[in-house]
Amino acid sequence: MNRFDHAKTVLETLESYGFEAYFVGGSVRDYIMGREIHDVDVTTNARPETIKDLFQKTIDVGIEHGTVIVLIDDEPIEVTTYRTETTYTDYRRPDSVSFTTSLLEDLSRRDFTMNAIAMDKNMNIEDPFDGHIAIEEKRIETVGIADERFNEDALRMLRAVRFISQLEFNLTTETEDAIRKNVSLIKYVSIERIVKELKKLYEGKNVTEAKHALVNTNMYRHIPFFKTLSRTEIIETNAHSLIDEIVVQLIKDPSMSYANILKLSNNETKYIKNSLRLLDDARSNLESKRLAFKYSEDVIGNTVSLLELNPILDESLIKRIKDAKIEKQKLPIKNRSELEINGRILMEKLNKKGGPWLQTLLTKIEGEVIMGRLKNTEKDILEWVLNEQENNL
Ligand code: ATP
Ligand code: MG
Questions:
Q1: Phi, psi (5° rounding) for residue 355?
Q2: pLDDT at 259
Q3: 101 and 42 both lie in a single domain
Q4: Which residue's CA is minimally distant from atom 30 of ligand 1?
Q5: Any idea where the Poly A polymerase head domain is (predicted)?
Q6: Whose C-alpha lies nearest to ligand 1, atom 28?
Q7: Measured between alpha carbons, how far apart are the two ends of the chain, in Å?
Q8: What is the reported pLDDT for 311?
Q9: Ligand 1 atom nearest 110 alpha carbon
Q10: Distance 24 CA to ligand 2 centre (A)
């Protein structure tokens, strides 16, 4: 079934009540290109309150921006009221959103001509800016004067570069010059949006070309994760090194203020958290052998390579983590289950009932074995335990 079919119900319903409604944005662009369609967006002259009245299941997402999610067979469709965006004073969000009854005005506020095409339920297009020609010629060109459009909203520059990778398109000369001119405004874009765009960039087909654009327009100098890297290093980055850069930023910023807003995948979060935990432990002077025991080879290895890339911590800390990598190979046991003793034997030999003392004792034994002060045999361990008991009497 066509991805547009659910959204078609939305167009038909709105039209049956006398409203205009069109498919718009990335889905129309991708449809014209013959690419796989993801989310289908709808634009309409119906107001948000009306949209909510006309459909059974809706979710308010950004009603103040005119967007309501309509659920058709549990399939979410973003329906947005025609709008214009008035003045921008902070380079990222319009100061106020005003609704309009004109499709042309709605299309005019969109970023690139390829994204400013409306399509009706019979797949006929309304394309006042000749977006289909830009698509044919693989051009990333703004609706209106590029310099003004980037000055209004700096995020558009990141989107432009992301589209190079995602669609294998090229910046027009005007677009590229305007990016070069306005690129310092990227500082007004939130880290979360930057990461989102960069992730899409790295997932695209033409990552190399997009990275060259990051370098050629000097954009990388305004991206927090990349500003310390050289041009050559930027060309060598990949999605993984983006995450590495984030970890490095987090190391510098222990408040973790970035971490919460990045909305990374579970795996990425785990990767970052493990490295940060390891660093925290190293900072609080946990010995290398202990670090080696506590963390997997992967986590230690990743953290070491991160630190080699960005030696921003003090030498002794780095040494402790590097030593942990070596110690990992030499550990007498890899985890507690490899101890040649267990709770049952200890209770039996000491003639004591189970209780919190048992965990404390096992942790102590484990520590002695890891540190190489006690051999991992039942006989040695029991001797040591009895000896400890006598000393504590
Ligand atoms: P994707 O394939 O990643 O979904 P998209 O073009 O659909 O790409 P969305 O973020 O889903 O991107 O936005 C939907 C549409 O909203 C865009 O196609 C564009 O018309 C408009 N749009 C999005 N962001 C901006 C922006 N910063 N400035 C102007 N128009 C925008
Ligand atoms: Mg989209």
A1: 170, 180
A2: 59
A3: yes
A4: 110
A5: 21-140
A6: 111
A7: 78
A8: 64
A9: 30
A10: 9
Q: Evaluate: CB of 25 within 6 angstroms of ligand 1.
A: yes
CA distance 140 to 145: 13
Number of domains in the chain: 4
Residues 173 and 115 placed together within one structural domain of the fold: no
Q: What is the pLDDT of residues 182-219, one digit of tens each?
A: 999 999 998 888 988 998 999 999 999 999 999 999 99
Q: Could you give the CA distance from residue 27 to residue 329 in angstroms, rounded to a whole number?
A: 52
CA dist 169 to 29, 41, 135, 139, 325, Å? 12, 22, 8, 6, 44
Buried b (16+ CB within 10 A) or exposed e, 56-90: eebeeeeeeebbbbbebeeebbbbbbbbebeebee
User: How many angstroms is it from 25 CA to the middle of ligand 1?
Assistant: 6
Per-residue pLDDT band at 258 (split at 50, 70, 90): low
- Within 8 A by CB and 6+ apart from 164, the residues are 140, 170, 171, 201, 204, 206, 209, 210, 213
Q: Is residue 223 part of a domain?
A: yes
172 CB near ligand 1 (under 6 Å) = no
Residue 169 belongs to what domain range? 140-237
pLDDT averaged over every residue in the chain: 90
* The model scores a pTM over 0.80: no
Q: Which ipTM score applies to this complex?
A: 0.99
Percent helix, strand and coil across the chain, each rounded to 5? 60, 10, 30
The overall longest dimension of the chain from CA atoms, in Å, is 91
Decide if 273 contacts 350 (C-beta within 8 A).
no
111 ligand 1 Cβ < 6 A: yes
